[in-house]
Specification:
The complex is a heterodimer. Chain A has one domain: Arc Repressor Mutant, subunit A. Chain A contains four helices and two strands, in the order αααββα. Chain A has a two-stranded antiparallel sheet. In chain A, α1 packs across α3 and α2 packs across α3. The longest helix of chain A has 20 residues. By secondary structure, chain B is α+β, with helices and mostly antiparallel strands. In chain B, the strands form four sheets. In chain B, strands 17, 18, 19, 20, 21, 22, 23 and 24 form an eight-stranded mixed sheet that branches. Chain B has a six-stranded mixed barrel with strand order 4-5-10-7-9-8. The radius of gyration of chain B is 36 Å and the shape is globular. Classes of the chains: A alpha+beta, B alpha+beta.
Chain lengths: 111, 880
């Protein structure tokens, strides 16, 4: 079912929202991704994904305060819902199980 | 700019230059999301300023905001307006097509009217677009100017655009702002081109300076623009002319011979031009450098001789107004005050549409015609829209229940407006598609009418976008009033069984019909006036006899064989009379204000037409001698310095006894030996100019031979014999001849085109208006069917019922005639004012136009009402 499936970018954003806690909003998330993963992301893509995740019920949002840095505009703070947390956990487990199925080849590769 | 002053300080707002992008974003972005998005963008911008600097940050901000205009954002508008209207749209179209199918007559009337309106407007707009594109394709068009003269005499100023040959080189030499300047001229002369056995005669010759190809963007297929004209014996030809001359052989680098006045000159083709587009004022097959002409007759240095067009390309950034002040007195300076004509530059791009000067200022020109046809196009569209409006509002009753039910079920007024607009757009869309086909099929015919090569550019995206926008616009124009009207119904009254009151709407409909027929009557009167003007001028006395009068160029060996040629023509019975002249009798050669006579007012600068003749001109052309005698070189050899005046010239010069007076032209004295009745040399619409028929003192002035054919023989035989004799005395040249009457008739071709166009659009307007009338009267008789039944039962006669029904429909037409006839009168008076020789507008024109409109409209209505008046009342009254 499509409802239970998250794309790679969606998963990344969802994880970031969970990680950044009270500081999870569009610009911060995109900054964090850029500095941590050296990955160029577009602000609009982050926003669209956030809204989509909210539609799916994995995160919820409320309006936070504005800062001078933002020209006084308020930010929308996202927090992970329990459904979102369950989703993250489920995905992590599936991945771990998959990882276990992979033969540990690391040492033999040099030959 | 506060942002520049301190970089470390975060900006409240990025910048004014980026403001527009944020505003664009605000337009697309759902309102509940905008604040946070803008906040994030600003935050990002401030971070970027620190990281990359202000310039790059700004670029990134623009890019980031534009990226937000994406479906994932735009479709998040909180009202679900989009979804509903998309869903309802299919319903609207379904209902619209059902309504259209149920009332086939109305749909047909609507679509036919709109199709005619749209296709005519499209044709006109295509033509207008072409007019505006004239000479707009030159790469440096904004820097190219044409030189004009301005002569101020007292309070009057005359402007004309023929300038001295020496102007262009002087401008280049003396003014730093001039990048290039050239002389261009088109002279009437006979040039024979020969390549092997191919011989082509050209009687118009174009000369230009080498930089011509640099200034104008006429692309060369072969050859080098910079050097193509460096040599006096080089020639640049168009692709088409090259093909005519060289056939399949390679033309570039090929040699050809040009024969002029008995001498042969070798030429080399140094450039082949792409055939000229039709949207340029230039018209030539080949270009010859001035160097060639100047290698024969020397450089023309005379500032008084205005004989060429001068084109100037100024350097970029030149302020043309101040430059014009600089060059204003260039003639005065170079003639030490003898010539006080001013010179000014006028943009090339204004040349086609805005080149009419009155009293020294541009006052329009061809743009007036363009505007008139533009208005015509818009009016045609409006008339078609009026049909739609009238039919929809007249039939509103039928849709009232639908509107009521929709409203009761919760439809907003806005969505009802939307629904009716969809219907009208759908209908116009259908009409638009048919129009495209109609325009496509009608273009060849229309092209021949307007003498253009217009085409529909199906591959051009702009064409499709503008066509679509145009159609939607027409749909909204036609549909908005009915939509607002229909959606305003109150459901309660309607569903209770009441009817909508429509008395107010009837006035509106009447007004619209008045406009339709008012426009029709205006056009009809114009058509009649144009036709009368043509007939009036055609019947004007030309002053000479055009029958059997033939002329051809005096070229090649004819110059030395002229006497023998003439004698044989007359002896063999082909011709009655033969004479040499400077130009054909239908064309001007040159005019000059520089002819002097005893008692001439030195301030008088009226131009006088020159026309050179040798002898027997009166017999050949059939002039009427009023006084004195014809030229006769046999009896009076001194007649080569004699002159014959026309009546207007005698009036101008104020001679009481003209014969024996002396006039001076170009330092040569001529004795007046006779006076002839005025004849039309140039335009039959204007006054006859004062003219001098000068003797042939200068042998080179003769270019044309006029021959009066023997009317005792059939014309075909005469021409065949003439050809043989011509070839005998002039074997090298092809025989090309013209009939004077055919050439004279050409002077009317412009106006005949105008007539054809007005006739066409008058018929279309009238037809569309009548379609609307038919629809309205059909509706009216339908809705009054019971009334008619009752009237018949109570003893009303068929005739009285027809009268009753027709009068209601005819009333607006009578009002239209009364209101718009004076308007047409004013318009046509203005039009006729541009002709010195013009017909006067009579009252009967209005009577005829009005009567014919009433008859046409009456017939349209009568067919309808007659049927209604004859229906059996039993059938109509039984239904309830």
């Amino acid at each position: 079912m499509g409802k239970d499936y998250l794309g790679e970018f969606e998963e990344l954003i969802l994880t970031m929202v969970a990680a950044l806690q009270e500081d999870a909003y569009g610009a911060a998330i995109s900054d964090e991704i850029e500095t941590k993963f050296k990955r160029e992301v577009n602000l609009s893509a982050v926003h669209v994904t956030l809204y989509r995740l909210e539609d799916k019920g994995y995160i919820k949002s409320r309006m936070g305060g504005g800062t001078k840095e933002r020209g006084g505009r308020r930010k929308r703070i996202f927090t992970v819902t329990s459904a979102g947390l369950a989703m993250l956990r489920a995905m992590k487990e599936t991945r771990l199980e998959l990882w276990k199925m992979v033969p540990q080849l690391g040492l033999g590769l040099k030959d | 700019m506060t942002s520049r002053q301190n970089h470390s300080q975060p900006h409240d707002h990025p910048n004014h230059s980026t403001d527009i992008w944020l505003r664009l974003l605000r337009f697309f972005c759902p309102v509940q999301l905008y604040e946070e998005i803008e906040g994030d963008l600003v935050q990002k911008f401030n971070a970027d300023v620190r990281k990359f600097g202000e310039r790059r940050a700004k670029r990134r901000l623009i890019w980031n905001s534009v990226r937000f205009i994406r479906p994932g954002i735009i479709l998040r508008h909180s009202s679900s307006f989009h979804l509903i209207s998309l869903f309802m749209l299919t319903n609207y179209f379904k209902v619209a097509s059902r309504v259209m199918l149920r009332n086939k007559t109305y749909s047909a009337i609507n679509i036919a009217g709109l199709t005619l309106g749209i296709s005519s407007a499209m044709l006109l707009f295509l033509w207008i677009e072409r007019e505006f594109s004239y000479d707009q394709f030159h790469a440096d068009k904004d820097r190219i100017y044409k030189a004009w003269n301005k002569r101020v005499t007292g309070t009057k100023a005359d402007c004309w655009n023929i300038t001295p040959r020496v102007l262009a080189p002087t401008l280049v030499e003396e003014y730093a702002n001039v990048e290039a300047a050239i002389s261009y001229a088109k002279y009437t002369d006979s040039y024979l081109f020969s390549v092997g056995d191919t011989r082509i005669m050209k009687d118009r010759v174009q000369f230009m300076d080498p930089q011509f190809l640099d200034i104008f963007s006429f692309p060369l297929i072969k050859g080098d623009a910079a050097s193509a004209m460096a040599n006096p014996n080089s020639i640049v030809v168009t692709e088409r002319f090259a093909k005519q001359l060289f056939g399949k052989r390679e033309a570039f680098g090929g040699s050809l011979t040009i024969s002029v006045s008995g001498s042969d000159f070798p030429f080399t083709v140094t450039g082949i031009l792409k055939d000229l587009p039709t949207n340029t004022e230039f018209d030539f097959d080949f270009l010859i450098p001035w160097l060639f002409l100047e290698s024969i007759s020397g450089k023309e240095q005379n500032w008084h001789n205005n004989s060429v067009s001068t084109f100037v390309k100024v350097k970029a950034g030149t302020d043309i107004e101040s430059f014009n002040r600089e060059i204003k007195n260039i003639k005065k300076t170079h003639t030490s005050g003898a010539d006080d004509t001013e010179v000014f530059l006028y943009p090339l791009t204004s040349n086609h549409l805005y080149s009419r000067f009155e009293n020294g200022v541009p006052v329009g020109g061809r743009i007036e015609i363009v505007r008139m046809l533009g208005i015509l196009g818009i009016c045609l569209i409006i008339i078609a829209c009026i049909n739609f409006i009238n039919l929809s509002t007249a039939r509103a009753q039928r849709r009232s229940k639908e509107v009521a039910v929709r409203k009761v079920s919760g439809a907003y007024r806005r969505s009802l407006v939307m629904q009716f607009l969809c219907e009208s757009v759908l209908i116009t869309f259908g009409a638009g598609l048919i129009s495209l086909l109609v325009v496509f099929l009608a273009l060849p015919f229309f092209n021949s009418l307007v003498q253009q090569q217009l085409s529909l550019d199906f591959q051009n995206l702009t064409f499709w976008v503008s066509a679509l926008a145009f159609i939607i616009m027409v749909g909204i124009l036609a549909g908005s009033y009915p939509a607002l009207y229909l959606s305003s119904f109150r459901p309660v009254g309607i569903l209770k069984g009441g009817s909508i009151s429509s008395s107010g709407k009837t006035t509106m409909r009447t007004l619209l019909v008045v406009f339709q027929f008012g426009f029709a009557i205006t056009l009809m009167i114009s058509t009649i006036v144009v036709r009368m003007q043509i007939e009036f001028v055609q019947s004007r006395e030309t002053g000479y006899s055009k029958d059997n009068l033939v002329y051809h160029s005096l070229v090649g060996d004819l110059e030395k064989n002229y006497q023998a040629y003439k004698t044989e023509l007359i002896q063999s019975g082909v011709a009655v009379s033969v004479t040499k002249t400077s130009t054909p009798i239908t064309q001007r050669m040159s005019n000059t204000p520089g002819i002097y006579w005893k008692g001439k007012d030195p301030q008088d600068r009226t131009p006088i037409e020159r026309f050179n003749v040798d002898e027997n001109i009166t017999n050949t052309a059939g002039f009427t001698i009023l006084e004195g005698r014809d030229m006769d070189l046999q009896r009076f050899p001194s007649d080569s310095t004699a002159v014959i005046l026309n009546e207007t010239a005698v009036r101008l010069m104020g001679f009481e006894h003209p014969v024996g007076e002396v006039i001076v032209d170009d330092d040569q004295k001529y004795e007046v030996i006779g006076v002839i009745k005025d004849f039309i040399l140039t335009s039959p619409y204007q006054k006859v100019e004062p003219m001098v028929l000068l003797g042939g003192k200068k042998k080179w002035v003769f270019n044309v031979i006029h021959i009066k054919l023997n009317h005792g023989h059939p014309t075909e035989k005469n021409i065949a014999d003439l050809k043989n004799i011509f070839s005998k005395y002039n074997p090298d040249y092809p025989f090309e001849y013209h009939f004077a009457d055919v050439e004279y008739a050409r002077k009317f071709s412009d106006l005949k085109g105008t007539l054809a166009i007005t006739t066409l659009f008058t018929s279309i307007t009238l037809f569309v208006a009548c379609l609307g009338l038919l629809g309205l009267s059909t509706y009216m008789t339908e809705s009054r069917v019971k009334e008619i039944g009752i009237r018949k039962v109570l003893g009303g006669s068929v005739l009285s019922i027809i009268k009753l029904l027709s009068m209601t429909s005819l009333k607006p037409i009578l009002i239209a005639i009364a209101l718009f006839s004076p308007l047409a009168w004013i318009a046509m008076n203005w039009w006729l004012n541009s002709y010195a020789y013009r017909v006067s507008i009579n009252v009967w024109i209005f009577l005829v136009a009005g009567a014919s409109i009433i008859v046409i409209a009456g017939m349209t209505i009568a067919i309808q009402t007659f049927g209604a008046a004859n229906t059996d009342p039993v059938k109509t009254l039984r239904t309830e």
